[in-house]
């Protein structure tokens, strides 16, 4: 099969390094973002620019989107001069954003009417995974489309699994966001407890990282949390958005999520305190507020 010309829409923290990997692998890339600086950076690395999602679709045969939220994907895919306006039968749309499973199904059904094959393919591994091309990619869609796109996924990720039909990738991503959010809350509570009881949180990170409590949050974020470094990374506002998706999905399928419900409210608290732009590990600050004690090495 001929190599696709790839369209890439959404050049944020995740999209920029992912697009760069595709360029470095020799793919021709046509990019679009509402942020002019982000576009300029990737055009500088060798991509061509398009001024609308429809133009991206007219110039490419495989279109990847990496946008913030469900309404953004819906607007870019189905809105005025959206992807749907520029596609031809046989083209492929791969949405790698984290959005509601129900919206993924809606977008793929609308594009299918134009003969477009769709995958929902959200990722895990964060900005570090995007930069190192080690993302986990959880995919929903048809086997044949998955097989066709797999070589492209392999340029951006390592652990790539077809989870089921359209929407299944987003469902698995919702499960992922439950685990990550609950773990951040648990690590935060542990650090604040230890710090207020008089232990250097740095020591807690060091020793717990090697025992049964070891986890991705302690490994990737523990050091930064106790240093009070909450530069994103994955922003609190995006994780809060994902927890809204999780709670809605729990509601849709009548699955009580009591633990996630409490953590959802902790994220809501962070949002109400105007901390949405912090890395999600900045949830620590909410637990610190509750205890009246900072869990920092210097505190
Ligand atoms: P981001 O906010 O850094 O980037 C989103 C980009 O989309 C921005 O450059 C923005 O200008 C662009 N955009 C928004 N609306 C647009 C539109 N209508 N047309 C064109 N461009 C538009 O977000 P991010 O951190 O890169 O995350 C992207 C997606 O990946 C989100 O769904 C997020 O939940 C998910 N995700 C992020 C991480 C992470 O660690 N950052 C990890 C896993 C998954």
Describe this structure in words.
The protein has 299 residues and is an alpha/beta fold. The chain has 2 domains: 6-165, Rossmann fold (3-Layer(aba) Sandwich), CATH 3.40.50; 172-291, N-(1-d-carboxylethyl)-l-norvaline Dehydrogenase, domain 2, CATH 1.10.1040. The protein has 14 helices and 9 strands. The protein has a 6-stranded parallel beta sheet, sandwiched between helices. The protein has a 3-stranded mixed beta sheet with strand order 7-8-9. Strand 8, helix 8 (143-156) and strand 9 form a beta-alpha-beta unit. Helix 9 (168-196) packs across helix 13. The N and C termini lie far apart (59 Å). The mean pLDDT is 97. Bound molecules: nicotinamide-adenine-dinucleotide (NAD). Nicotinamide-adenine-dinucleotide binds next to helix 4, strand 7, helix 7 and helix 12.
């Amino acid at each position: 099969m001929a190599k696709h010309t790839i369209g890439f829409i959404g050049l944020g923290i995740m999209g920029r390094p992912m697009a760069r990997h595709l360029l470095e692998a020799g793919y021709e890339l046509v990019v679009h973002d509402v942020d002019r600086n982000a576009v300029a950076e990737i055009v500088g690395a060798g991509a061509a620019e398009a001024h609308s999602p429809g133009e991206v679709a007219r110039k490419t045969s495989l279109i990847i989107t990496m946008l913030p939220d469900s309404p953004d994907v819906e607007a870019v895919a189905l809105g005025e001069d959206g992807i749907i306006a520029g596609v031809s039968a046989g083209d492929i749309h791969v949405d790698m954003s984290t959005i509601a499973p129900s919206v993924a199904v809606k977008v793929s059904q609308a594009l299918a009417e134009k003969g477009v094959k769709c995958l929902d393919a959200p990722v895990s591994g964060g900005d570090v995974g995007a930069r190192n091309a080690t993302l986990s990619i959880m995919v929903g869609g048809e086997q044949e489309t998955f097989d066709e796109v797999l070589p492209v996924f392999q340029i951006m990720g390592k652990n790539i699994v077809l989870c089921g039909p359209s929407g299944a990738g987003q469902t698995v991503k919702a499960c992922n966001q439950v685990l990550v959010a609950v773990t951040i809350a648990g690590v935060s509570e542990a650090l604040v407890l230890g710090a207020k009881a008089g232990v250097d949180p740095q020591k807690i990170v060091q020793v717990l990282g090697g025992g049964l409590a070891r986890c991705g949050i302690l490994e990737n974020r523990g050091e930064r949390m106790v240093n009070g470094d909450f530069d994103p990374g994955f922003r609190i506002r995006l994780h809060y958005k994902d927890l809204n998706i999780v709670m809605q999905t729990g509601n849709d399928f009548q699955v009580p999520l009591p633990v996630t419900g409490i953590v959802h409210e902790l994220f809501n608290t962070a949002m109400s305190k105007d901390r949405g732009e912090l890395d999600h590990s900045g949830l620590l600050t909410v637990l610190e507020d509750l205890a009246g004690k900072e869990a920092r090495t210097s505190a």
